[in-house]
């Protein structure tokens, strides 16, 4: 029996209109843009890189050493036990394990929408 507030995917599509689609056991459907998922990879290496970027002093002059037009996308998805999804990315990154609760919290369709200012 699932703990209250715990949701599990019943269907995952790797390529659904250029996004990853997850249908949850409560009927909610979430569409995750690939670049958003890749940017929040929870692996230790990616967490360390994000932390270093936030700690580094601001440099007003930055030299771009590489330019890529390649869009990252998942090449393989596999479940990890009953708690997460392992995603292998087209950029070669293979250590991202995304827990179900993290994916659920990242769902764009379930986030509160900020009301737009009316004139």
Distance linking N and C termini? 50 Å
User: What's the average pLDDT?
Assistant: 85
| H and E string | EEEHHEEEH
Examine the secondary-structure arrangement and name the CATH architecture: 2-Layer Sandwich
Keywords: Iron, Metal-binding
InterPro entries: GBBH-like_N (IPR010376), GBBH-like_N_sf (IPR038492)
Protein name: DUF971 domain-containing protein
Domain Gamma-butyrobetaine hydroxylase-like N-terminal: 17-104
Q: What would you say this structure looks like, in words?
A:
By secondary structure, the chain is an alpha+beta fold. The chain has a single domain, classed as NE0471 N-terminal domain-like, CATH 3.30.2020. Helix content is 21%, strand content 30%. The chain has helices at residues 34-39, 44-55, 100-106, and strands spanning 9-16, 19-24, 29-33, 74-80, 84-89, 96-99. The strands form two sheets. It has a three-stranded antiparallel beta sheet. A three-stranded antiparallel beta sheet has the order 4-5-6. The longest helix is centred in the middle third of the chain and has 12 residues, at 44-55. It is globular, with a radius of gyration of 17 Å. Residues 64-69 have low confidence and may be disordered.
Describe this structure in a few short sentences.
The protein is α+β, with helices and mostly antiparallel strands.
């Amino acid at each position: 029996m699932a703990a209250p507030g715990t949701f599990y995917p019943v269907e995952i599509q790797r390529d659904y209109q250029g996004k990853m689609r997850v249908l949850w056991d409560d009927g909610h459907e979430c569409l995750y843009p690939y670049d958003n998922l890749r940017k929040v990879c929870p692996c230790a290496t990616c967490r360390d890189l994000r932390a270093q970027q936030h700690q580094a002093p601001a440099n007003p002059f930055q030299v771009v050493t590489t330019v890529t037009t390649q869009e990252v996308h998942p090449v393989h998805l596999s479940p990890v036990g009953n708690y997460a999804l392992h995603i292998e990315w087209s950029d070669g990154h293979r250590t991202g394990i995304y827990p179900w609760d993290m994916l659920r919290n990242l769902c764009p369709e379930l986030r509160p929408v900020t009301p737009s200012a009316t004139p």
